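Reminder to self: tokens first, then the designed residues, so the page reads top to bottom the way the pipeline ran.
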């Protein structure tokens, strides 16, 4: 089964550094479509409640289907700004956020890939991430809360090279009955977005 989704640019910066509800289960999405650029701001973003404790964030740039979002995690002047490259995937019919792909640098300086997805999936199967729908990278779930599940993977050299040259990819999770639920997306702008993320990292 494939989800009908589109890629959209986030205009609400708090989506990156704060967990928000994931709208809808991927298993309920139908159809087959790759990502496009012109998509309204997802309801999941519009409905995300403001939290005074969340770090102040800003949109630092847009690169194709990716958005660079930056913010400080601490309310002190000396705190370094943290940036993430974000690709939200929206279910076309309901306009609900199904997946959110995040690329960022971890505390040890490793480049990390994170996929936020829905609950109600087979946790032991994790997430399958496939640039250009060729090689598959398996991502174990790290945490699962009522608002959604998060899978994490440290970038390998191979994964970085493949994403830099990939035009389209697939994200697959598994329903509780074992059925694969696949979502297609375009990675337009990733190379430029990663260059901007690296430049910001070097500046810090």
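Designed residues (204 positions):
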């Amino acid at each position: 089964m494939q989800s009908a989704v589109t890629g959209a640019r986030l205009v609400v910066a708090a989506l990156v550094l704060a967990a928000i509800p994931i709208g809808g289960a991927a298993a309920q999405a139908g159809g087959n479509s790759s990502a496009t650029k012109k998509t309204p701001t997802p309801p999941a973003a519009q409905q995300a409640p403001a939290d005074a404790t969340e770090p102040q964030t800003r949109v630092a740039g847009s690169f194709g289907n990716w958005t660079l979002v930056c913010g400080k995690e601490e309310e002190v002047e000396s705190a370094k700004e943290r940036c993430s490259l974000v690709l939200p995937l929206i279910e076309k019919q309901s306009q609900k956020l199904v997946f959110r792909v995040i690329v960022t640098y971890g505390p040890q300086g490793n480049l990390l890939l994170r996929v936020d997805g829905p609950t109600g999936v087979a946790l032991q199967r994790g997430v399958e991430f496939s640039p250009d729908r060729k090689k598959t990278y398996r991502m174990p779930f790290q945490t699962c809360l009522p608002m959604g599940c998060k899978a994490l993977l440290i970038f390998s050299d191979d994964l970085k090279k493949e994403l830099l040259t990939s035009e389209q990819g697939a994200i697959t999770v598994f329903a509780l009955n074992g059925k694969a639920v696949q979502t297609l997306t375009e990675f337009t702008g990733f190379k430029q977005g990663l260059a901007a993320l690296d430049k910001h990292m070097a500046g810090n």
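The longest helix spans residues 190-203.
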